[in-house]
Automatic annotation (TrEMBL):
The gene is fabG3. The keyword NAD applies. This is 3-alpha-(Or 20-beta)-hydroxysteroid dehydrogenase. Belongs to the short-chain dehydrogenases/reductases (SDR) family. Keywords: NAD, Oxidoreductase. One of its GO terms (molecular function) is oxidoreductase activity. Residues 7-185 form the Ketoreductase domain. The lineage of its organism: Bacteria, Bacillati, Bacillota, Bacilli, Bacillales. One of its GO terms (biological process) is bile acid metabolic process. It comes from Lentibacillus kapialis. The keyword Transmembrane does not apply. SMART domains: PKS_KR.
Length: 244
């Protein structure tokens, strides 16, 4: 029996990277999954690969009307939403002197505003299930310092998770945050970056970077009924980096 049998999930930023990994894991465990992203071709290819229980819906996570459309279409296609994974996010490698106001707004809108919009828009549908789970992908930089803009918004996701958890608990909706460290993605394992990442990995207590599937296993746990008494909490997957 699949750990997510009967559950309907929306995953943002699902076209690639960790989002695609989460989607594959959810499908394997019996969920019906909406792949929500702005990358149409890549998302549709993934939906085709995953089969009839996966569907692509175009979503600009910073747009409230887009969220309302996707929630309505999800309910019409699969039924009330029981799981939301707020996975979409970006970072900018700029100093506080170099980052512009427009840069900052972009990071804020995708990393922070989108999480608020997702929780706000999905929760009325989720209340119909009496057993909802919202998983907000923050970062280890939601616990310790890092790049300006990215760190700020990931700390905010952590706080928003706790506020939403308290607000939605009476409706049977759990809200938790996941805090990945360095994750193995194509961007990190190619060319000059690969050497730098391999050198950095020597300073991680576990002596390696994580695979996307390791994050997906945690997201799966939080989406499933196995985590039924966990809400408002942080789940860290960083190989011990923030323990140092």
């Amino acid at each position: 029996m699949g750990r997510l049998n009967g559950k309907v999930a929306i995953i943002t930023g699902a076209a690639g990277g960790m989002g695609a990994s989460h989607a594959r894991k959810f499908i394997d465990e019996g969920a019906k999954v909406v792949l929500a992203d702005i990358m149409e071709e890549q998302s549709q290819d993934l939906a085709d690969e995953l089969g009839e229980n996966a569907i692509f819906m175009k979503l600009d996570v910073t747009n409230a009307e887009d969220w309302e459309r996707v929630v309505a279409d999800t309910e019409e296609t699969f039924g009330p939403i029981s799981v939301l994974v707020n996975n979409a996010g970006i970072t900018l490698n700029k100093s506080i002197e170099d980052i512009t106001v427009d840069d900052y707004h972009k990071v804020f809108n995708i990393n922070q505003l989108s999480v608020f919009l997702g929780i706000k828009t999905v929760s009325p549908s989720m209340k119909k299930t009496d057993n909802g789970s919202i998983v907000n992908i923050s970062s280890m930089n939601g616990l310790v310092g890092g790049a300006i803009g990215y760190t700020d918004t990931k700390f905010a996701v952590r706080g928003m998770t706790k506020a939403a958890a308290l607000s939605l608990a009476p409706d049977g909706i759990r809200v938790n945050s996941v805090h990945p460290g360095v994750i193995e993605t194509p961007m990190l394992t190619q060319g000059d970056t690969k050497d730098a990442v391999e050198e950095f990995a020597k300073h991680i207590p576990n002596r390696r970077i994580a695979k996307p599937e390791e994050v997906s296993n945690m997201v799966l746990f939080l989406a499933s009924d196995e985590s039924s008494y966990s809400t408002g909490s942080e789940f860290v997957i960083d190989g011990g980096l923030t323990a140092q």
